[in-house]
């Protein structure tokens, strides 16, 4: 079932962007082709750019500590299975420990690698990583896939504590809300929001056979969802039929 996450603030938006990049890296790193591994390296550079602009380490540690406290306060609640709670607290502790033990700035060892930074600098130029621009990189891409996988894994290693922290926080966020079944009349849905604790993200899920996708406009006051399809030229066109979907409002 396709799902679409829509963040309500920049903090959650940053976590979702990093999750997307990490997912692509961890999938493509298992590939064999040199061009797939080139894409992996470009995604690693994009991760570095995002964490360069925002200091995430302390923010993530504070959120993990807060979630651990919330989970511990739920102990003894008869509606919550103790084993599930213990496993979640253990996951939080296992994510926080290596992140807390990471010295200095996240990804600094990669920034200190002059060879990687020379590739990163050229990669923002269209066609800037040709063999005549970076012969050493062209040579590296021609090495065995096992060697490239090993190098990429080494470069990813200092970033993995960040990914583990993001993964558990987004897991808690996605599981925090109650899911409701809704219908978008003539492809449009609107809902006013209220309450003392505003949502931080919404999730829309539609069935596999629904030939459309949601475009969301939302803030802490209201949600507007418009379902569109693509014509033969890949231009969005409004759906004018009723669309059944599920909606989850999430909050840490």
TrEMBL record:
Q: Where in the cell is it found?
A: Cytoplasm
Q: Mind listing the GO biological process terms from this record?
A: division septum assembly; FtsZ-dependent cytokinesis
Query: Could you tell me the keywords of this UniProt record?
Result: Cell cycle, Cell division, Cytoplasm, Septation
| Listed transmembrane segments | none
Keyword Cell division present in the record's keywords: the answer is: yes
GO CC terms in record: cell division site; cytoplasm
Question: Is Metal-binding one of the keywords?
Answer: no
Primary localisation category: cytoplasm
What family classification does the UniProt entry report for this protein? Belongs to the ZapD family.
Describe the protein's quaternary organization and the partners it interacts with: Interacts with FtsZ.
Q: Which HAMAP family match?
A: ZapD
Query: What's this chain's function?
Result: Cell division factor that enhances FtsZ-ring assembly. Directly interacts with FtsZ and promotes bundling of FtsZ protofilaments, with a reduction in FtsZ GTPase activity.
> Under what name is this protein listed?
Cell division protein ZapD
Q: Give the source lineage, highest ranks first.
A: Bacteria, Pseudomonadati, Pseudomonadota, Betaproteobacteria, Nitrosomonadales
